[in-house]
Amino acid sequence: MSTKARILANAANFTSQELTDAATISWDWTKMQSAKVTITANRTLANPTNAEEGQYAALVVNRTGSFALSFGSAYKGISSIVQSSVSGRSDHFVFRYDGTNFQLVSFRSNVGA
Hints:
This protein is mainly beta. The chain contains 1 helix and 9 strands; from the N terminus they run αβββββββββ.
């Protein structure tokens, strides 16, 4: 199956899939266009792999403490955002790949009970 066919097949499924919490978090856009991760320490989200130009993807970041998430160099539009620092709260991101960079198109902070 081609990369575009896999992306289209996965695009119909918006159930968030769990990314693995690690010092550097990997995200394959052919497998997970809607992803979530619970971070348990300060982390870095690596630049996604296997993205196609024009593709959108959503990410929910949950926290178990006041931990920061930094982003790979290809993420753009994130320098001025203020992420939640409250345990039990989450941040919601939507990115669009322009062929070179992952542009932040939507962000909501401090979501939760």
